[in-house]
Design a protein that fits this description.
By secondary structure, the chain is α/β, with parallel strands linked by helices. The protein is built from eleven helices and ten strands. A six-stranded mixed sheet has the order 1-2-3-5-7-10, sandwiched between helices. The longest helix is centred in the last third of the chain and has 19 residues. Bound molecules: coenzyme A (COA). The site of coenzyme A has 16 residues, from helix 2 and strand 6.
Amino acid sequence: MSDPVIVIDDRGVRTIRMNRPEKKNALTQPMYAAMTAALREAAMSEAIRCIMLAGSPGAFCAGSDIGDFQKRAEGGLEPVTVDFLHALARNQKPLVAAVGGLAVGIGTTMLLHCDHVVAATGTVFSTPFVKLGLIPEAASSLLAPMLMGHARAFALLVMGRPLNADEAKAAGLVNTVVEAAAVEDVALQAAREIAALPAGAVALARKLMRGHLDDIVQRVDTEAMHFKERLQSEEARAAFAAFFARRK
Ligand code: COA
C-alpha cells in the first residue's frame, strides 16, 4: 500500500503530497499526523525555503474523513486535527498550494494559510461544514471574511455555496488558474521562485503580512472547542450517516 502522505525535498522546496486518491484525499488522523510532522520538521531545516502542498490529479483534498468524524463523535479517537491546524497556523515557511481538483472542507480552509495558490480550471472549492451540522474550522471564521468580505465568506462557509476556480480567484483565495495538467509545474515554479529569494527577508515580510498569529491560533482553538461539541450533535450524526448511506 502506498504512503497516504508523501514528503519530498528538492532544491529548497518541500512537497507535502496527500496521496489517498481512492478517497479523493479525505484526510485520516494518521495523514494529519504525517502532515503535522512534515510541517514541523521543515521549520527546523534551513535548507527548506518553501513548502508546497499538493494532492492528486482531480482531487486536492475532500476534507476530513467522515468515518473519522463518526469515530470522534463516539469518543473513540484522539483528535490530531487541531495539532495539524496549530502547525499550519504557526508555520513560518512560505506555503504554496497546487490544487489539481476538488477542495472540500479543510481542503479549502487550509488554503487560507497559504501564500500562493495555483488551481486547475475545473476545481470546485466548497466548505459544507454547516450542512454537516458542523462549524467552520482552521480559523476560517476569522480569515475568510478578512480575505473576501463577510458576504462572500458567509455564502461559502455558512450557506455552503461552492466557488469555482475563477470565483476563488476573484475572492482572493487563488492566484492563478491553469489547465489541470499544468497545475503542479506552475505551482512548483512559484515555489522555486520564492525559495530563491533571500530567506530572512521573506520570513519577516510574511510574518508582518500574516497579522496577529495569537489571534489566529486562538480562533483555531475556539472553533475546535465548538467543532468538538458539534461532532456529537444529532444534526452532525445524521449528516454523517446520510453521507455513507447515499451510495447504498
Ligand atoms: N470522508 C470519507 N470518505 C470520503 C470523503 C470524506 N470526506 N470524501 C470522499 N470519500 C470517499 C467516498 O465515500 C468514496 O468512497 P467509496 O469509493 O468507498 O464509495 C470515495 O471517496 C470517492 O468519492 P465519491 O463520492 O465517489 O467521488 P465523487 O467525485 O462523486 O465526489 C466528493 C467527491 C468529495 C464531492 C464527495 O465524495 C463528497 O461530498 N465527500 C464528502 C466531502 C465532505 O463533506 N468532507 C467533509 C468536509 S467538512
